[in-house]
Amino acid sequence: MRYALMVAVLLALYSTAFAQVAPSAAERTGYAGLFAAADKGDGATIARLAAGGADVNARDAYGRTPLHVAAFAGRHDAMRALAKAGASPNLLDNDRYDIVTIAAVADDVSTLDVALAIGGSAKNVTSRYDGTALIAAAHLGHDGVVRTLIGAGAPLDHVNNLGWTALIESIVLGNGGPRHVATLKALVDAGANVNLSDRSGTTPLALAKGRGYTEMVAMLERRGAK
Hints:
By secondary structure, this protein is mainly α. It is 54% helix and 0% strand.
């Protein structure tokens, strides 16, 4: 019961206090220069402003760069134009999110593909939980994103500061439904450690059994989980 309560509290924190913060409508209306061009997907204006000396790594009040803004808006031409002009693809905003994690949380594979193509890394440690884009995507059951990140070399067994891996989060923060099952399958097929316990010493198999996730249990047992 104590463990279940801890999970519920942590899930609430994930969903509120430390969630990504996209630019608000008011912020977007107030943007000018590169930020406005990034939000609108105006690659030509980005190229012109950058050539004129505009800072492609400038920050708004929330620590977002124009590249963060373009990623939140799914503006692929703007992302490419900013990268071509020298924008760093691996900077973090105030909540320590990068463009790869922004796309991962949004379940936006096409934006993720662009983020990776312009130099974003699937290996970055992001968020206040010292996690990764893969952990965030596994938590949400974004199985297509998970497969893309695995293909990009995301660390399979990274442990965040809650003591959880992507594999564990696909179980304890999922609902046992088809997308979380597909997420777990992608992770175990890629070689994620099925016996890496959480901070309390509870194994992924025990976690899945405790939640009655029979399909996950069977999958883990086939892979030698104990």
